[in-house]
Amino acid sequence: MNRSPTILLLIAALTLALAFGCSKSSSAGGSVKGDRAAVTPVTVATVILLVEFANQRRAQGANAKDAMLQAGQVRLRPILMTSFTLILGILPIAIGSGAGAESRRPMGVAILGGMFTSTFLTLVIIPVVYTLFSDVGDKVLHRKKHLEAIRATA
């Protein structure tokens, strides 16, 4: 049972909501342009790096917790490198001054908020959600097989 789409939707929704909050609470104001720019393909890519590695380990027989621990150990560096590269690249836009800076600053703040949020969610919340969904899914699958076995013998 593949739960990756649910996890991807969860991270995208949480990142968008928190980036929207960063944009609105900053001195930069906030704009529709900045709020839409907060969820980038990079956000989803970091989650995919983690979840797909864990799925591969699960396919090899590991339980959800061990699979996610291995995924976190192996994929931590690529996730951090990707996130910090984007954060450092967008920082001049978020703190910039000069001609046109006031129109670009909200977008920069929203992207910074979105990336900080998505990095935190990817490294802390997603492993918990993945393990929880896997445990619940395994229990449902086990119960379904048990009921089928009972029906087969009756």
Question: Keywords for this structure?
Answer:
5 helices; Multidrug efflux transporter AcrB transmembrane fold; mainly alpha; elongated; about 0% strand
Q: What can you tell me about this protein's structure?
A:
With 154 residues, the chain is an all-alpha fold. The protein has a single domain, classed as Multidrug efflux transporter AcrB transmembrane fold (Up-down Bundle), CATH 1.20.1640.10. Helices cover 85% and strands 0% of the residues. It has helices at residues 4-25, 32-36, 41-59, 64-95, 101-153.
Strand content: under 5%
CATH superfamily: Multidrug efflux transporter AcrB transmembrane domain
> What fold name stands as the CATH topology?
Multidrug efflux transporter AcrB transmembrane fold
Q: Please, how many domains?
A: 1
CATH class: Mainly Alpha
Distance between the termini: 28 Å
| Overall pLDDT score | 78
